[in-house]
């Protein structure tokens, strides 16, 4: 046998006899491998179900790495562990490695004819090619053997392989095609034995070695084929590769070298690949050795599940915490903006500009401050005269109040939306949920106007109900229900004369805004306006009824405004609701992992 084609491990050659000795040792330890039973199958299925529900949708740091780990664990359980708990499957040898490593040529040469296309166009292997002995066809046709969904392998029977052993030609681990890379990683995780195939020029490449580290940490049994080795490089290349294997704790890994030789009809000469071919044939001819490899890989894979489940659960818990922070930001900004708007609507700051001017038009600009009692009769007379004329003096005042309220609510909604956008851009996972321009604020000015008109109608109905059976009913009717309703609206906007500036709560607990502004020269301040409106309403309803009326109107305004803010938060709520993240899922996953380990 030439120097290049010898088989050895970095420490010593491993023969079948040694494998059998190890199997005998394992068989004396009944708890070292999982027993196939309903409990373990059920636990495996439950764990798979929990894993399938985890997506890690938030873009947290290192989330791609964590997603890959979830996919790897899920695929290994579905494609490798579960099938070996339910079926007497052949030993699955996956031939995988770097682009251009000669994987398909190796598979064809091991079988003895071309069963997997080889060529120079990359990627050559676009679909996995599975070759098995004809007697094992029923296993791979069964749904019990692996979850082949999406892989769509080419499955071929060939008598050139011994029964009980199957070869799978996998796509390139470093393929330019994303799906090919994903399939390659998935297939290596499904292997009983991974025949890692590389070349003298590329054996130290980072990408395949990262897969080697991951696969061995997950329990996959490994053998290495170093292809296309120039004759004068065999010894130093083998030495260096052996050192790399030792550094990774893989000193017992079988290592086969294939020299750079001319192919015949696309196949390697027998003498060039005699080492690896003899090893595969010996493995195929020895059921005990095959069983040893399969049980060793299964045992290692099962033992790795616990720590891997803990990693996944920790990732899901981080997602849940991030989601909680995003939701808390929505609640926080809703309270802040809602309280500010509630204060602005009812602390007197609306009593300025257009509202103040229309109020003076409504009651006249006579001597307000010479005595409220004497002024009330004149106010009532002016209101009655105004209402008896061609112009409805109440309508312009009502329009002005609603216009001011619209401005306050619109600005409050805009402030809340902008603040939420800023908060989410700073919070982990938030930027990925926002469009380039942020989420669209859905509440329109038309909706605000419609809400305020509905509130006006509600206040009018309150006045109408209060007027029934009152001794002052005639006086109310002489003023007009609509006019009195506008005075109630003004009283709500002006705030309480007794406690100016107090406000209720749109978001949650009430807050007090800045003091009311002083009116311009010749115009009453908000506090004075509140006093006039209250005394006028007292003269119509009485003090207690007036308080109940204005309180009811104020409370209803806050409730309707709160509904608008709830509508404005909807895009943020929908963005959160679309994420399949649940606070208790990490605990459910840990519990499923614990049950799996208990049944092993």
From TrEMBL:
The record's SUPFAM superfamilies line, in alphabetical order, gives: P-loop containing nucleoside triphosphate hydrolases
Which InterPro entries does the protein's record reference? Dynamin_N, GTPase_Era-like, P-loop_NTPase
Q: What residue spans carry the region label Disordered?
A: 1-38, 500-526
What's a Pfam family in this record? Dynamin_N
Q: Domain (Dynamin N-terminal): give its ranges.
A: 93-137
Q: Which GO terms describe its cellular component?
A: cytosol
Q: For this chain's UniProt record, which GO biological process terms are given? A: ribosomal small subunit assembly
Q: GO: which molecular function terms?
A: ATP binding; GTP binding; ribosomal small subunit binding; rRNA binding
> Can the keyword Plastid be found in this entry's annotation?
no
What keywords does the record list, in alphabetical order? ATP-binding, Nucleotide-binding
Extract the PANTHER family matched here: GTPASE ERA, GTPASE ERA, MITOCHONDRIAL
This chain's protein is named Energy-coupling factor transporter ATP-binding protein EcfA2
Provenance organism: Spelaeicoccus albus
């Amino acid at each position: 046998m030439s120097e290049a084609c010898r088989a050895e491990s970095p420490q010593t050659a491993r023969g079948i006899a040694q494998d059998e000795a190890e199997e005998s040792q394992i068989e004396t330890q009944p708890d070292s491998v999982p027993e196939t039973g309903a409990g373990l199958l059920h636990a495996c299925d439950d764990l798979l179900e929990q894993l399938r529900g985890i997506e890690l949708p938030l873009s947290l740091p290192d989330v791609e790495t964590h997603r890959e780990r979830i996919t790897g664990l899920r695929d290994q359980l579905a494609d490798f562990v579960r099938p070996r708990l339910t079926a007497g499957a052949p030993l699955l040898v996956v031939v995988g490695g770097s682009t251009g490593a000669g994987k398909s040529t190796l598979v064809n040469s091991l079988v003895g004819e071309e069963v997997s296309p080889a060529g120079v166009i990359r990627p050559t292997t676009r679909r996995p090619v599975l070759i098995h002995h004809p007697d094992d066809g029923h296993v791979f046709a069964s749904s019990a053997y692996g979850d082949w969904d999406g892989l769509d392998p080419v499955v071929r029977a060939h008598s050139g392989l011994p029964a009980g052993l199957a070869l799978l030609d996998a796509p390139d681990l470093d393929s330019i095609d994303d799906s090919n890379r994903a399939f390659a990683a998935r297939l290596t995780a499904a292997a009983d034995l991974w025949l890692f195939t590389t070349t003298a020029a590329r054996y130290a490449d980072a990408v395949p070695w990262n897969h080697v580290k991951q696969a061995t940490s997950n329990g996959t049994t490994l053998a290495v084929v170093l292809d296309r080795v120039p004759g004068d490089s065999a010894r130093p290349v083998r030495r260096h590769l052996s050192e790399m294997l030792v550094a990774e704790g893989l000193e017992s890994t079988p290592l086969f070298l294939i020299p750079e030789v001319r192919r015949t009809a696309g196949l390697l000469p027998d003498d060039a690949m005699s080492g690896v071919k003899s090893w595969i044939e010996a493995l195929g001819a020895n059921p005990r050795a095959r069983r040893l490899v399969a049980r060793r890989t299964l045992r290692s894979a099962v033992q790795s599940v616990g720590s891997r489940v803990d990693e996944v659960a920790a990732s899901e818990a981080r997602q849940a915490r991030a989601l909680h922070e995003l939701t808390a930001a929505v609640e926080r900004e809703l309270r802040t903006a809602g309280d500010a708007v509630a204060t602005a609507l009812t602390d007197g700051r609306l009593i300025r500009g257009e509202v103040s001017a229309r109020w003076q038009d409504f009651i006249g600009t006579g001597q307000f401050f010479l005595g409220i009692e004497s002024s009330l009769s004149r106010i009532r007379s002016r209101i009655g005269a105004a209402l008896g004329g061609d112009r409805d003096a109440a309508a312009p005042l009502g329009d002005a109040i609603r216009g001011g309220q619209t401005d306050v609510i619109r600005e409050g909604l805009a402030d809340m939306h902008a603040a939420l956008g800023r908060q989410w851009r700073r919070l982990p996972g938030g930027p990925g949920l926002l469009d380039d321009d942020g989420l669209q604020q859905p509440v329109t000015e038309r909706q605000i106007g419609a809400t305020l008109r509905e509130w006006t109608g509600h206040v009018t109905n309150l006045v109408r109900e209060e007027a029934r059976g009152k001794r002052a009913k005639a006086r109310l009717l002489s003023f007009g229900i609509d006019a009195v309703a506008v005075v109630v609206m003004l009283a709500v906007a002006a705030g309480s004369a007794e406690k100016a500036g107090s406000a209720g709560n749109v978001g949650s607990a009430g807050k007090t805004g800045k003091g009311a502004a002083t009116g311009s020269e010749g115009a009453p301040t908000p506090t004075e306006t509140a006093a006039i409106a209250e005394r006028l309403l007292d003269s119509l309803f009485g003090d207690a009824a007036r308080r109940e009326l204005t309180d009811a109107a104020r409370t209803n305004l806050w409730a309707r405004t709160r509904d608008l803010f709830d509508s404005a938060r909807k895009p943020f709520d929908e963005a959160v609701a679309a994420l399949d993240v649940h606070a208790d899922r990490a605990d459910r996953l840990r519990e499923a992992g614990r049950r799996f380990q208990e049944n092993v």
